[in-house]
Structure formats: C-alpha cells, structure tokens
Specification:
seven-stranded mixed sheet, 11 strands, 0% helix, four-stranded antiparallel sheet
Length: 127
C-alpha cells in the first residue's frame, strides 16, 4: 500500500502562488488515481482536484478551476498541486490521497473512494 507525505505548504499573500508536493512510497503509485482535498477550520473536508493514472485526465472543484493545476510524475512517484492566484478562502490543510490501485477515475469524486491519505500540509493565505 502506498504511503503519502505532503510538503510545500506555508504562508502566502493574496494573489500569490504555492506548489504542494506529495511523495509516495510503495509500488502502486503509477496505477492509482490521486487526489487533493482540503479542510478549513470548522468545515468538512472538500475535494480540490483529481488526476488519473497517466496524468492525462484531471478534474477540479469549481472553486479552484483555472487557478490550480494537478500533475504527477510516475517515474518519481510524486504528485503536485500548483496553486496560483490564491485567495483567503483557500486557507486550509491540504491532503493528498490515493485510490486503491487499478481503480478507474470516476465522477463524482468521493472521499470514500480514497483509501490512503497523507498527514496534510497547512496553507494560509493572508489578505
């Protein structure tokens, strides 16, 4: 089973950018649908974006579409989230997550589909 470790969070001003990374260990990264979720204080965890095995298909929450980009490097077992034009409402703990291997990407994306989660990385956008 893959294990996930996020990094790259921090404090950024409104309109700024951050790039989150998720390092995966294990042999199944290349055949696992990967996703990013976030959870703000007092709110439920919400979907941010998802990417299929090959990286050719991505889907995003409406709130981040056009600002965030998910990518993956299967040769390095890494998942990335490039976040641009950040807003205060993007402040949250960001989690990467993996689906069981060989499970195809399906919409809508449900958190319960993901069986492995990282520990999270804090992103704070100051106004």
């Amino acid at each position: 089973q893959v294990q996930l470790v996020e990094s790259g969070g921090g404090l950024v001003q409104v309109g700024g950018s951050l790039r989150l990374s998720c390092a995966a260990s294990g042999r199944t990264f290349g055949t696992s649908v990967m996703g990013w979720f976030r959870q703000a204080p007092g709110k439920e965890r919400e979907f941010v974006g998802v990417i299929n095995w090959t990286g050719r298909s991505t889907y995003y929450a409406d709130s981040v579409k056009g600002r965030f980009t998910i990518s993956r490097d299967n040769t390095k077992s890494t998942l990335s989230l490039q976040m641009n034009s950040l807003k205060p409402e993007d402040t949250a703990v960001y989690y990467c997550a993996a689906c069981p291997p060989l499970l195809p990407l399906k919409l809508p994306v449900l958190p319960g589909t993901f069986n492995t989660w990282g520990q999270g990385t804090q992103v704070t956008v100051s106004s």
